[in-house]
């Protein structure tokens, strides 16, 4: 019996390999996304921090691009390059510089102005400040590295906010074996302003151990776009076991409107799965021994 347990545990652990962490030269920008509300006729200042860990002094180029909703539900946004978006941010943003030279290990701050004309219509504008690290000048052709910080600008006034949940389910299927349950909700934005839907998933026991609440963090959805919002931890399940009713309560991000969806799920923790395997092997062994004795 002990050997069966060790074998079962070894098989389970092999399914979850541990990868060695490797540190590579890189650079970073903070924040990855910023939201601003600016009244017509007013100006505000934003800041972007750039940290160089590429191993040498780098000249970074600063650019502006509009963004739009992606082509599919798994692609929330798409950078438009030189093209103007339907809700263009470019006319409203003025960076303090279009290039920065940063020594290795240093961090510098890029300021930028958000200017909203008096005549600007209400709504939201969506774009990104791009930061591009120049490639090394020797060693052949090398691609530039680029990061983007999303900038969302809201101009107060009368707008059309309209969105809804179009789907709800489990990423790991209706029977979850060994892992924590991972959920998804598909949200469509049919209005003309970006939305930040958020909420809770309530696991209510039907024939199960005590339930749980899972937070659905805010996720931006651009106008005309559709996005898959994921919730749940990618870890082994120790506690949840049995049949559950999973209820999604998602705030649409405006007027305190809630969407409610439900699914049922059977959750089997990893230790129960191992015990079932051990019991099954022991039963087979017992039957084999019984047949041999005959």
TrEMBL record:
Keywords: Membrane, Transmembrane, Transmembrane helix. The chain crosses the membrane at residues 268-289. This is DUF916 domain-containing protein. It comes from Candidatus Vogelbacteria bacterium GWA1_51_14. The lineage of its organism: Bacteria, Candidatus Vogeliibacteriota.
